[in-house]
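User: Show me sequence and structure for the first protein, then do the same for the second.

Assistant: Starting with the first protein.
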Amino acid sequence: MSTPAFSTVAELLKPITWFPPMWAFACGVVASGVPMQGHWALLVLGMVLAGPLVCATSQAVNDWFDRHVDAINEPQRPIPSGRMPGRWGLYIAVAWTGLSLIVATALGPWGFGAAALGLLLAWAYSAPPVRLKVNGWWGNLACGLCYEGLAWATGAAVMAGGSMPSGRSLALAGLYSLGAHGIMTLNDFKAVDGDRRMGVGSLPVRLGVQNAARVASWVMAIPQVCVVLLLVQWGLADRAMWVAGLLALQVLMMDRFTDAPTERALWYSGFGVPLFVSGMMVSAFALRSAALPT
């Protein structure tokens, strides 16, 4: 059997998707309030685990079990195009799972446990018999939890020496996980035809394109409103104003996105989502400032 080119393997692992969990891990590190001196290695190792390892594994797993759907929606992808021959896609998914678990041992019990849970959800999302992605509600929730909340909580816990993150940090991690549910829906608009034919119940398939766009927008916006209210309650009104401003810009863009969801989902991903994740970091720094001695 021929072996795939390095460029094809890199395409399978989708480096462009690594940013969200790496960013969320960094947010958790910031929110922990622990000084970075002497902890840079943990930050780098955690971001490598979150992105190039665990997230990349999820991409390989998803592409292998979605190869028949991709043959309809995106036949140019590595597996349906034949550039990833035989069962190489599955072999890479299994190998990256093992490598991720090995690296995770260097981050202690919290890091290993979080990586194991993230990998379990990655396989459950794509692989039968569970295949969470056939239900857009559950599948997107699993992705949002892995990409944002789990990575944030892990960063906070690792920096704190394995201690449980603060309740405030966990609250923000949970809210941004819920918001990420809507972000995951943005990826589904391009695949409606193949998803419908192959029985994948994404929200655009279940609700219709227009309704799914409205739901995604509300799901992204409401958790951010909750973040603003919490920051105000915690005496961090100045940072709350920044998050509110970023949300206001998103709402303006959501109005344009919902007018033509299929055509503008990629546009919103490119310009609206960066505002969402910027709010995450502003919130993380708000917690950090509150934790510093006055």
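Switching to the second protein now.
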Amino acid sequence: MEYDLVILGAGSGGYEAGLYAFRRGMKVAFVELSPESVGGNCLNRGCIPSKYMRHGAYLIDKFNKMENYGILPKGYEIDYKKLKEGRDNVVTTIRENFKKFAKQLNIPIYYGKGVLKDPNTVFVEGEEKTLKAKFILVATGSSPAGVGNLVPDGKNILDTDQIWALEELPRRVLIVGGGAVGVEFAYIFKKYGSEVILVEIKDRVLPSPDIPEDSGRYLGRKLREIGVDLRTKTSVESWEETPSGVKVKLTDGSEHEVDFILLGVGRRPNTRGIGLEEAGVELDERGFVKTNEYAQTSVPNVYACGDITSPLMLAHKSMYEGKIAVSHMLGERDWKKDERIIPKIIYSALEVASVGLTEEQAEDMDIEVSVGVASFVANPKAMDDGENEGFVRIVADDETGEILGCHIVGPHAGELIHQVVHMMKDRKTVEFASKSMYSHPSLSENIGIASSEVYYGPISWTKRR
């Protein structure tokens, strides 16, 4: 079997790259572990099912505010079985649509483990087939990582692949890790009625340098407000199985009985055992594939995208890299990776979105910046919706006015951030943003206000004599 492009992994990045390559006239084939894993981690065990559950938690929040709108609720019941059925139905529908669409386009999917035998050959273990390719794109994704004595066993300690098999909501759960996964599940479980303890070894949730300290602390306060027992600068000292669950001792000296421990401490790249190094593809010390600005590896006709290229494990980053790789395969050199414009979105008790530089990162780079902040507290649309919490923060080059970063906490932050992503891609300034039109009432107005705070200077209020 000979193809222009063979893609190892039909997840977010691989699938998007495959469709893009087909659109551009290439003969494409996918290699994926099984029919049940098409769509990758994001679809089957990550962002899609978790966002379904998070939306349910959000609806409970909305339900509790209905009286403010003259709607007197009569109460509700939680049916986890219904939640699980609805969630799994969405996942299955998307996955089957993926497979049907590939079939309609005559793009074959070979099921089994794909192994590079040389830079132009992939052997599919399981189907026992050899595929020849002009180009190879590796998009094999990642797997959950353990930490210390916390090794996932599917019963006492669950990782983010195992949590979906849960048949009932926990009475009490301990979540380890205050990153994107930890804060999302803390919100979900709390809103669905579980007692939640969330521990983070750093001094705040969302401790990534790409997310401003203010954003993490704002979300931390909100989680505590809704009843999450959030403990920063804390980790698990020891644990033991009990007849009813798990007994945990934390480093702050406290002891807790929980149904299970959920690990949200990161993932590792799936790069071992698939012939990469044997084919000459260089990996770094952590197992990530080394790539250049075109997603090209050390072997010229082998490319890589997604979770295997860096710790920034985002489905949209994988899609973006995959299409850049295909573009380069076709001889184009104008589309290069630009990590400035990759947005990071967290869905929890509030949405948190960031793109570009924080003030601290700019300072480390010796860039003088000006910052404009617009609160949602007084935003009319946010007030109408009963969600007037959070802010928009614009970080701009002090000399040129170019927008270097944007950080949003609050309603629909994950959608709002894209306006600024596109501005940053085109290197627009705060003058451009402040002179643009935003409908009223809208949440988007805060982007214009924050930009105006930089371009025109902050509004100061003085007392009348």
